[in-house]
Amino acid sequence: MRLGSTDVIRGVGFSLPRGSCLAVIGPNGAGKTVLLRALIGALPHTGKITWAAGTVLGYVPQKLDIERDLPLNGRDFLRARAALAGSSSAMQAEALRSVGLPEAVLSTPIGNMSGGQFQRLLIAFALLGRPNVLLLDEPAAGIDAPGQAQLNEVIHGLQDTRAMTVLLVSHDLSVVYRYADYVLCLGRSGACFGPPRSALTAEALYEVYGQPLGFHVHDHS
Amino acid sequence: MSTITPELGSLALSVLMAVAAGLIGSFAVMRRMVLAADPMSHIALPGIGIALILGVNPFWGALALLLLGAVLIWAVERRMRIATEAVIGVTFAVALAVGSIITSGEELIDALLGTPARLTLREAAFGIAGALIVIAFVLRERNALVVRLVSPEIALTSAVDVARLDLYFFLAFALTIGLGLRFLGVLLMGSLIIIPAAIARRFARGLGTMLMLSVAVAVACTVAGTYVASLAGRPSGPFIVMVAGGLFFISLVRRRET
Which domains does chain B have, with CATH numbers? Predict the structure, then answer.
């Protein structure tokens, strides 16, 4: 993949079984967001992306910069998506429930929501399109610890209850170990792919981040 | 060509034009196009000049260049994605300069500031149809426009053709400017699109209120301003914008609760 005259990502290949969770990790500038944007078709790329037949994508972008006084509330936002997808108001209520948001957010302007609330609203928004693959770009960035925990529960709850395939960019290696079935690291020298425990060795992390990481896996088994 | 009752024809057209301006302005303000809106109307001037030289109704010349300008902004925005402001600013300033050289005298003042209307039947009919097209577009596509302004990427995964939607939006924007030129002129039409929406934004906490308030303010300013201008026998644009600007400053007094 090229942006302008720079090769951002080169030679990345992976395939993912249905219903699994892939975590994409790597240092800033490694092309994690670029990869996700290519996967949804927002950026041109060479190479081949093959989705299974019947795949419907839902995308939750990286922290959006919403002006505080934007006159759009939760209801306007969800209703817009529901209208585009032709889904019912019952589905809107269900989507809100799935992400653990109270009905009160419907009348809150989206610029006034907390980071965690808005991120969950974005997930509810994506659910209205009835996706079976959910792509999330650093969903927990800039959110406090309880908010992050809640968000992780929501995401993995969806994976369990709706058998959804999840691709998420994360900087939190403990989340990666805990939830991901596979990990894809984009680094300075190529990429690695595999289940976290076998792919994320100290050497691999050194390769990816260019410096040793003080990270320990506590093996409780 | 026959002339319909100036009062009736121009009142109907000005009200519909203001409704269109209030609607398209709401989305322009939410999309942070405030600064691009104003210079865009300037490109109409060379169109007016060329039409006058060719002996054609200046309205068609203005409209042709506005639509061309819309395609230009769209193409620039698609290619560069950022830093479009400088390109837009320079292009339309040059258009204003060229236009003021090839248009002259009284016609220039009329084109810049708006004339007390005397519409031909064809012009009124086209204007009303155009305003209805813009109104229908915004109301029909409001969901796609909402999703697009929050994030182009999620619009893409919501089955919205972002490039096409943007093109239609810019064309509707240009058409709205074209409809209002008669009343406000090249220099001031952009502000009828922006000011009412900017006022509405200070009060609205949801899309419905935003659209309704913006339309109400745009219509009120247009009707009041045109009326005062006709009493004074002066171009209508400055009066409409003075009313709108006055309301905007009054709205600043109220602090928005968040």
Answer: 6-190 (1.10.3470.10)
